[in-house]
Specification:
By secondary structure, the chain is an alpha/beta fold. It folds into two domains: 125 residues, Rossmann fold (3-Layer(aba) Sandwich); 68 residues, no CATH class. The chain contains five helices and 13 strands. The strands form three sheets. It has a six-stranded antiparallel β-sheet, covered by helices on one side. It has a five-stranded parallel β-sheet with strand order 3-2-1-4-5, with helices on both faces. Strand 10 and strand 11 form a beta hairpin. Helix 1 packs parallel to helix 2 and helix 3 packs parallel to helix 5.
């Protein structure tokens, strides 16, 4: 693919509900200027040591990359170098001219690198434009705030689905359950892939009655802990 502006775009994503939003922003920008798109995530642990939630997000990002014909997913695991150095290396190798970075990733990676990623990138790759996107760190909507997601499954039960935390032969959908804070019951959101579509559906007392997508748009303070 030849970019009409000789551009290429790198989207940096970290685990959480906002990676998809950043990727879609990058896809939109890449399509507009007809540029190749690279999606990068970095982890200091080896891939086989990642928990189920992180693996789930990586699988989603790969699927989103596959849906965009000129997108390429890059996973840098077991990475001990500062994150800014890894981003800069990928940017140079792929001739990247624009980087999309979320505030979530910036905040988290600052904790890892003990410094400012933005300043380091500006120093290491001054020829690249940086797009800093404001994103949410937690799932939250008008009805409540949700805990960190855990791996879960939906099992068909008549005209509805039961939430399960154990995989069985009857499990039809695999995803992440975000439990609503302040309840003793399994109330919250279940996030999963249905075909090529990512859905977030309401769970009430461990039951999903329909697959109406729940719009999650607002966010908690970026100063909160994961």
């Amino acid at each position: 693919m030849t970019s009409m502006y000789n551009e290429s775009i790198l989207v940096c994503v970290y685990y959480g509900p906002n990676g998809e939003r950043l990727i879609k922003r990058g896809c939109k920008l890449a399509k507009m200027i007809k540029a190749p798109l690279y999606i990068l995530t970095i982890d200091h642990k080896p891939f086989d040591e990642l928990d189920a939630e992180k693996v789930f997000y990586i699988e989603q990002w790969k699927k989103l990359a596959d849906e965009h014909k000129d997108a390429h997913f890059i996973m840098k695991d077991n990475e001990k170098r500062p994150v800014s150095k890894v981003i800069a290396e990928v940017a140079r190798k792929k001739n990247v001219t624009q980087i999309v970075l979320g505030q979530t990733a910036q905040s988290r990676w600052q904790q890892i690198t003990k410094g400012s990623i933005i300043n380091d990138l500006l120093h290491d790759i001054p020829f690249v434009d940086l797009h800093i996107i404001s994103v949410a760190r937690y799932i939250r909507n008008d009805e409540g705030i949700y805990e960190k997601g855990v791996r879960a499954y939906l099992i068909k039960d008549g005209n509805q689905y039961k939430l399960s935390f154990n995989h069985t032969k009857d499990s039809e959908y695999e995803g992440i359950f975000f439990k609503e804070i302040g309840t003793d019951f399994d109330n919250g959101l279940f996030r999963f892939m249905k075909g090529t579509e990512t859905l977030q559906v309401q769970v009430s007392d461990g039951i999903v009655t329909d697959f109406t997508n729940v719009d999650v748009s607002s966010a908690m303070s970026l100063n909160e802990e994961d």
